[in-house]
Write a structure and sequence with these properties.
The chain is mostly beta strands. The protein contains 2 helices and 27 strands. A 4-stranded antiparallel beta sheet has the order 4-27-26-25, with no helix packed on it. Strands 7-8-9-10 form a 4-stranded antiparallel beta sheet, with no helix packed on it.
């Protein structure tokens, strides 16, 4: 029998016996997730809940009730994680970057995770972006998808397999970096992958930013057809621009992309506004038919909270509702907006924008189990209130109606974009699991 000081006792609710029993049952399930050792009792007609964290009793429900989500787990891919491969980082400058001096000889960094897809048995496919951020500095970075399994018990991440994208059958209809090779591995000078889905037939679909294009490969990363353009939209990096003016700013392409619940449609979403749009808060969602392999012409409009803000991801909740990551361009203690919003494409306002409501604030996540502790000297956003204070949060997966997994793009190895957790350290890739206060379904 656990004992606890009376002065630490907190009453949570009172009411009918049936209500108390129901509430106690709900709290018991919740506490088992974030706290393996807990006490829930009726005392003097009142129900109380206590969680013992690191040897001390904590008022878990009181702490959790103040925020819209609770941290269930956190696993880390360290910043200095590499896989074997060609030398990379030869075009990013001399450094050093917090002691790291490029190039990275005979290896490729596992970084820039910009999309995840949940598999069975706790595995996720995790897609990296173009490497180091631009066409010019990423010709030696090979585009890849990693099969990963985060262990939320010990905080580690297993990288079980890697799929490198390649075009051995010459499907891409413009010159690529590895044009004269047999395998024709794709690089960050060819595409800037930012979104990713697995179709019901097992093929991979990627949304990218240089075109912006949609690209289809098989499940081994082999390109199956030419990149598909959205009519009338071209970035400055589009290989078919032909001297014409771009219609979309650089690095504002298909940042998010949902797969419809029935598996028949993709919904790629632009990260930024079109150049000539009178409303620079507008972010366009396009509809793409997977069977016809063409855009349907349907579009939906999402309004960000500020024209300077970007979207990070779009995933489907049901046939009409979607989850959007919206973020500012700040990191660390300067970050002000990192939120998840629910939208409904069947509900629009008088200006044609989709209905939108907040689901979670990623700068205000309860950590009653103190999963984020202990930290390192200088770490921010850990402890009772956990934050996800990174410049780029670009991946989310719905694994249960009330449970999400998210990751950050750690922008290795650039301190200006990669010091959200600690101003003196390059960011790791953090994979977090959170429980929502209100289930999505």
């Amino acid at each position: 029998m656990l004992s606890r000081p009376k002065e630490r006792r907190v009453r949570f609710f009172s009411g009918t016996k049936a209500l108390k029993r129901a509430a106690i049952g709900f709290m018991g399930v919740a506490m088992l997730v974030v706290c393996p050792l807990f006490v829930i009792k009726e005392i003097n007609g009142k129900a109380e809940a206590w969680c013992w964290v690191k040897g001390e009793p904590r008022n878990v429900m009181e702490e959790s009730a103040l925020v819209g989500s609770v941290l269930l787990g956190r696993a880390i891919i360290p910043a200095d994680t590499f896989v074997d491969g060609p030398t990379s980082g030869q075009h990013i400058g001399p450094g050093p970057f917090f002691g790291r001096v490029p190039p990275f000889v005979d290896k490729q960094p596992v970084q820039g995770i910009s999309a995840i897809v949940a598999l069975k048995d706790g595995f996720f496919l995790a897609m990296s972006d173009n490497g180091f951020g631009s066409k010019a500095n990423s010709p030696d970075y090979l585009l890849a998808v990693y099969k990963t399994r985060p262990n939320f018990a010990d905080g580690t991440v297993e990288i079980e397999d890697m799929i490198r994208l390649r075009d051995p059958n010459n499907q891409i209809n413009f010159p690529i970096q590895n044009e004269g090779t047999v395998k024709r591995y794709l690089t960050g000078a060819d595409f800037d992958l930012e979104s990713f889905q697995v179709a019901p037939d097992g093929t991979f679909w990627f949304g990218e930013e240089f075109g912006p294009f949609l690209i289809q490969t098989d499940d081994q990363g082999v390109v199956l057809g030419p990149p598909i353009s959205v009519p009338g939209v071209k970035s400055p990096d589009n290989p078919f621009l032909g001297g014409k003016e771009p219609t979309l700013p650089r690095s504002r392409g298909f940042e998010g992309m949902a797969l419809s619940i029935d598996g028949t449609k993709l919904y790629p979403m632009l990260e930024g506004a079109l150049i000539d749009d009178d409303d620079q808060s507008r972010r366009i969602i396009y509809e793409f038919d997977l069977k016809a392999e063409e855009f349907t012409g349907r579009k939906f409009f999402y309004r960000v909270e500020d024209p300077k803000y970007a979207i990070g991801e779009l995933v489907a909740i049901d046939e009409n509702r979607f989850l959007v990551i919206e973020r500012d361009g700040k990191q660390g203690e300067a970050a002000r907006l990192k939120k998840l919003f629910e939208i409904d494409i069947t509900r629009v306002d008088a200006e044609g924008y989709v209905y939108k409501q907040k689901v979670a604030d990623l700068l205000d996540i309860g950590d009653p189990g103190r999963i984020s502790l202990p930290g390192r000297e200088g770490d921010v956003g850990i402890g009772r209130i956990f934050t996800f204070p990174f410049v780029t949060i670009e991946a989310v997966a719905i694994i249960a109606p009330d449970t999400l997994v998210l990751t950050n793009d750690n922008n290795f190895p650039f301190p200006d974009w990669s010091t959200g957790r600690n101003p003196d350290r390059l960011d790791d890739t953090e994979i977090i699991k959170i429980r929502l206060l209100n289930p999505l379904l």
